[in-house]
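Sample entry copied in:
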Amino acid sequence: MEFRDSYDLRFGVITVLVGMVVATFGLMRWGNEWYYERKLGGIRQFLPPGDMGWPLIGNMLSFAVSFKKGHPDSFIETLHTRFNRTHIYKSHMFGSPSVIVTSPEACRKVLMDNETFGPGWPKAVTILLGDKGFHGITNEEHRRLRRLTAGSLSGQEALSFYIEYIKDIAVTSLKDLSEKEKPIELLTEMRKNAFNIIMYIILGIETSPELEKLEKEYHLLTHALKAMRINLPGFAYHRGLRARKKLIKKFGSLVEQRRVSLENKQTKGKRFMVDLLMETEEDGKKLSNQEIVDLIIIYLLAGHESFAHASTWVLINLLEHPQYYQLAKDEQEKIVKKRVSVEDSLNLAEIKQMEYLSKVIDETLRLANLSFTLFREAKTDVHMNGYTIPKGWKVLPWIRSVHMDSQNYKNPNVFNPSRSEDNTSKGAGMFMPFGAGSRLCPGMNLAKLEICIFLHYFLLHYKLERLTPYGKVAYIPITRPSDNCIARIQKLSSI
């Protein structure tokens, strides 16, 4: 009898403690929600469904768990399940009260409507990339800088000029990689190639050991962009800040050297992007060295990460799907056979003929989701889908959700380059790997050009042997093979 009484007492105490813990956690979550909504007045009743998570960290814990555990889509799927698939949810993400939108229509509106939604990048991103870059400036300044740089990144003349240089890097690197005795990290090598190309386009600097050191620093910077803002040794954000200081010092020196050369009329031949950025505009405005350095860092992000990761994933996807690999290879062989002379080199007209390869690249970008979300901020109270987004709240168009929703794409986890022939796919807002609207990624055309050139020579002359096929995938800060794709590149024929 005494034993039973003792057991009941212990059970009762445990039950009370558990109840207290649950109540405390519930009170903390309620308090966090009240803190951010208390000043909204009557708007509160029109907020989208959702919750604000825990004090300080908001919903970042559930976000991090889903992405780090290898189930990134479960984060949004949980919201759909809990709140009846409204496609718009209140939350607290990346340090701010936020609204997540997941439908193609809502995402497109947020990205296209510059009058209602302004840039809303997290403070950490602004610090790491600089407050003079594309991501944080006003719409007027954004249009101005796009006008200054568009020709050097996406103009037909510029792209045609870059082909030969990109080709030389692709041919040389593939040859060198195929001759290595030890396996390589394919993604790491692609990063190096991308960095060399974009540095040439921006500053006219060709491949060198110094560039390799700068690329490593830039990798640390980009790795910190989606990390928690903890400025302590050992954390990614701290390493990113240190890398930024080194890059600013080096890029600042290069920009100043170029400016002096231009002023003294010592430059000859091809003009590079930095030359355009230094020009005085009609209204007398002139970019400072700091503004130019911030733009260099932004354009490196656009041309560096997109090419490196997309190229790696294209090769992995083709390796895992031989039927699509053969179709892509056949297309490249047909292009070569049409040439009048065997000495003719790849040109822009031929790249435009790569219709199937373009589908392969687009399908890869849809699956990889190199940017799972973008960041905007409501300039005023916004009414959307029957709810109100308060002025000043961040708005996150969740691009990954659009690309991976079975209502938008049949069997979304399956790699299928031919799905673009289906009229139900790629409608308005259905395909946005580079964003949308006036703030569309400025390096999009250049990145796709680089990918096409590299794959042209790879498909014609090489094959990939991955040493850890179907290996694990990491999703933070960007979707990538956890081992950076350890592989061998084998040469099939002489170039």
